[in-house]
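Hey, resending since the last one bounced:
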Amino acid sequence: MTPVLGEVLTAIVTPFDKDGAVDYDRFRTLARHVIDNGADGLVVAATTGESPTLTDEEKFELWAASVDEVGERATVIASTGTYSTAHSVHLTEKAHELGVDGFLVVTPYYNKPPPRGIVEHFKAIAAASDKPIVVYNIPQRVVVNIEPETMVELAEIPSVKAVKQATEDLDQARRITAETDLDLYAGSDHLVYPFLEVGGVGGVVVHGNIVPGRIKEMIRLYNEGDTEGARRIDDELKPLVDALGVTINPIPVKAALNMLGHEVGGLRLPLVDATDDELVEIRSGLERAGLTAPASV
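The structure tokens again:
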């Protein structure tokens, strides 16, 4: 069955102008491009969208622009999770009012709540809206792993419908699909194919900014039983995935998009532009993946 929010959810970047302000026109253009080329939905103002350095008002405008621009033909998932439950509830209420289709909620970070605190955090956010919640488990960034036993508890919350799992622990991924009814999304680009093999439905992906159609085709082939064809696409995309991992996200994907002519601008500190050596690797990855990049950055 098709997952409620789609298979290919692009974690879209936030374009900035030369003064560092959000470029909403460029954002709308990129959102259209991503959906036109095969993505089922957008995850807006998340890590790839530089959420830690966006104001609440900027997030609200980005969510509203997404709904206005592509909401009739794609899902819009607002990243509303923070380490403050009250703030997360506020963001979720506002995103609900703006008409988004669901919410990405990361594990509370920095203060390392115990499992029962994580469950109560998600219950409070779920009370703010009846729209689907995607639990975002990324222990390498938040320091806390949502163990399968806790995920089972979260799955009992009616509006918790999916998990974005950004850990390579395939046993944990298998337990999620075996012990819950949650849609399992790969939370790292290189995990999309391996997660399909353990019952995943797709991915919340950074390379969806660049090749959403190829990712969609890979998932389609796998679901139709053509695992060889799906694996071939996965192999073809590996140089791009590797290039987008040369340094911390979203530094490489913004550099790649700029190389491809999308003009998404730079980054807000403490993120910095890619180095010359990193740019060489990113350009090489684009070329080896069959993507044409202009001659200069």
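The longest helix spans residues 227-243.

Sorry for the duplicate.
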